[in-house]
Amino acid sequence: MTSIRGWYEASFPPGERRQFDSLIQLLPYPDMHLCALVEAGQPVGFISYWQWPDAGVLFIEHFAIDPDRRGQQLGQQALTRVLTIPAAYYLLEAELPVDDLSKRRIHFYERQGFQINDFPYAQPPYQPGNPAIPMKLLSQPVIHEQAVFDAFCRLIEERVYQRFYH
């Protein structure tokens, strides 16, 4: 868990993640999954996702590869494996494409079959009282209807964020 904690805290600014101890407290929830990515017996990254069969949704909350191991297709392999889990929609949040890094990140997801949805989105705050963060919600397949998009946004807000407000 030490490697995962380091990647989690280094890869995501405080406003875009929980405290690591709070993340660990979510592990008993059956819809939450935190998976170490292992190559040749060594941890190389992690992915956390929420699986809601009742809604046909798998929501990828966090995903990071060891910076020393990037460029070896480990992220592509991990996403390919996650996308074999049955769901009608796969969703994930990404930073707005405002600089080279955020643009590269979105292009990576697009190469894996994700598409940017054309509706405005903001990541709900992890703690009540904090501001929402403008982002893009990517999905596979793309969401064409505003009502469907809004329903998924409510689902994410209720089951990932508000559910754990203290």
User: SSE order in H/E notation?
Assistant: HHEEEHEHEEEH
Poorly predicted parts: none
How many DSSP H or I helices? 5
Strand content: 25-35%
User: What's the alpha carbon Rg, rounded to whole Å?
Assistant: 15 Å
Could you give the count of β-strands?
7
Query: Which structural class do you get from the secondary structure elements?
Result: alpha+beta
Largest sheet: 7 strands, mixed
Q: What is the rounded distance between the termini?
A: 24 Å
Overall form: globular
How would you sum up this structure, described in words?
This protein is α+β, with helices and mostly antiparallel strands. Helix content is 32%, strand content 29%. The chain contains five helices and seven strands. The radius of gyration is 15 Å and the shape is globular. 26% of the residues are buried.
Q: What's the quick description here?
A:
With 166 residues, the protein is an alpha+beta fold.
Secondary-structure topology with pairs:
Blueprint: H1 2-11, H2 20-25, E1 32-39, E2 42-52, E3 57-65, H3 74-82, E4 89-95, H4 100-111, E5 115-116, E6 121-123, E7 133-140, H5 146-161
List descriptors.
single chain, 166 residues, alpha+beta
